[in-house]
Amino acid sequence: MTTRSDSFEASRRRSDEIQADLAVHPQNYTMLTGDRPTGRLHMGHYFGTIRERVALQNAGITTRIVIADYQVITDRDTTANIQDNVRNMVIDYLACGIDPEKTIIFTHSAVPALNQLMLPFLSLVSEAELLRNPTVKSEQEASGHALTGLLLTYPVHQACDILFCKGNIVPVGKDQLPHIEQTRLIARRFNERYGRVFPEPEGILNDAPEIPGLDGRKMSKSYGNAISLSATDEETAKVIKKSKTDSERLITFDKENRPGVSALLTTAALCTGRTEVDIAAEIADAGSGALKKYVTESVNAYLAPIRERRRELESQPDYIVDVLCEGNRRANEIANATLAEVREAMSMVYC
Ligand code: TRP
User: Which domains does the chain have, with CATH numbers?
Assistant: First the structure.
């Protein structure tokens, strides 16, 4: 029997092999990944995945990003603010270096043929497989909401996101690995039943340390421990100032026992390229006030060019709409072609 940690090791190994090949054969890879438009992107997103997407794009890999608007309603009852969230997500991407000439940015809801893949794909998975997805389970528990049909089946919808454009690499965090396994299974079963149409995609695991939120837990808007890319310098100073440290004056890096202090050190380390230990030694017994001041300056300096570009983009709302319309148009072309192949493979072409 393979345990989950065996399969994690296998994913890690395959991910490392692909990482090495990407630079040599960029033309062999199509990246698809995405985000739910539930709020602003924060530094956790940036260091966790956005920075890597930009690098893949610039290395000549074919790149596509889905703004996963249908995933917003997996566990909530409203689409309030979705317009604003989608527009700001496009602004965040562009400000971070995503180039719409190279990378297609699109939304689920604008690409009918992508969504139609859901029907044949649902026939390829069992109820038991859907119910045992650990990420779905924990999301359902965290939301305190009933398990909706869409939450239960969204990993299959995510397979549609990846496979409509024949994505073969998906940069993801660990929590998304079960979904990649699900996608691989769907691709394999489809190909076995109907002939080869889809690649079996691989997850690319990020090497960057997971950026902690300001309290040492994972950075997440819902924990209130996140620094948004779009925050002002003053807002950034305020959240950092509010973050919880401890009463010990001497600053040391100790994740286990001093999560707050250590999270601040990691944040500054990511922004300055220095190590946590080095920064801690410099602050020494100047205490958490001095540490917070240093973190605030490092974060604001690091984000300054992104925020500057953000402000420029905010003043061009028509351009942002154009980027999205063009992305949706191109995604529809690809999705229509793939759906035609699927119909052909399934002998469902009648006229
Ligand atoms: N579920 C992902 C998240 O919450 C977003 C997403 C949607 C995605 N479709 C995807 C990620 C396809 C990778 C591939 O972050």
Answer: 4-208+317-345 (3.40.50.620), 233-314 (1.10.240.10)
Q: Which residue's entry shows tokens 């001093």? A: 258
Report DSSP state, residue 31: E
d(CA 41, CA 92): 7
Taking the C-alpha atoms of residue 351 and residue 344, their distance in angstroms, rounded to an integer, is 12
Residue 164's nearest CA partner among 328, 335, 34, 344 is 335
Q: What is the pLDDT of residue 4?
A: 58
Question: Could you report the per-residue pLDDT of 293-315, keeping only the tens digit for each?
Answer: 999 999 999 999 999 999 999 99
On whether the pTM is more than 0.85, the answer is yes
Q: Quick check: CB of 34 below 6 Å from ligand 1?
A: yes
C-alpha closest to that of 68 among 117, 7, 115: 115
CA 346 / ligand 1 centre spacing (Å): 27
Q: Is the pLDDT of residue 51 over 50?
A: yes
Per the DSSP assignment, residues forming a β-bridge with 204 are 171
Specify whether the CB–CB gap between 33 and 103 falls below 8 A: no
User: Ligand 1, closest atom to CA 161?
Assistant: 12
Start-to-end CA distance of the chain, whole Å, equals 48
Contact 176, 138 (CB under 8 A): no
The verdict on the CB of residue 33 being under 6 Å from ligand 1 is yes
The answer to whether 14 and 202 are in contact (CB under 8 A) is yes
Gap from CA of 254 to ligand 1 centroid (Å) = 32
Q: Which residues lie closer than 8 Å to 269 by C-beta, 6 or more apart?
A: 275, 276, 279
